[in-house]
Amino acid sequence: MTNHIIKFITTFLLSLLVVFAIHIFYLKTQNLPLFDNKIIAAYIINFLAAVVIYVSLFLLKNKFKEQLGFLYMGGSFIKFILFFIFFYPAYKLDGQMSSLEFGAFFIPYLISLIFETLGVIKILKK
């Protein structure tokens, strides 16, 4: 059991770190601010939320196998709420969301979503 969770967390963390490095490198090459728009918070919150969702689903897989898809959707809804609590107010201070703000949140969100989805697929196949 713990091997699956450790493997998921390790692979996910390493992948997210690589994406973060590429993201920062791109910002640097474009002479854009590197650590604005809550970029670090976006990566950390998306990582933690994805890990909590995956571990929760993994631990509930036997008891709620038929409902795992709905539980996964509930976890995604919670991530959506986290966005509106932690990021949306700051991003909309000037009345609009810039592409840098969108990218700072959406890139780690997308990577997290992909890993969560693949993780849930593996759980459901077992």
Secondary-structure map with pairings?
Elements: H1 2-29, H2 39-60, H3 68-86, H4 88-91, H5 99-125
Characterization of this structure:
It contains 5 helices and no strands. The chain is mostly helical and 126 residues long. It has one domain (2-125). Helix 1 (2-29) packs antiparallel against helix 2 (39-60). The longest helix has 28 residues, at 2-29.
Please sum up the structure shown.
The chain is globular, with a radius of gyration of 16 Å. It is built from five helices and no strands. Helices cover 79% and strands 0% of the residues.
Distance between the termini: 12 Å
| Sheet/helix structural class | mainly alpha
- Which residues sit in consecutive blocks of at least 5 with pLDDT less than 50? none
Provide the succession of SSEs: HHHHH
Radius of gyration, in Å, reads 16 Å
- What's the number of structural domains? 1
Number of helices: 5
Describe the largest sheet.
none
Mean pLDDT equals 88
Q: Approximately what portion of the residues adopt beta-strand conformation?
A: under 5%
Helix content: over 70%
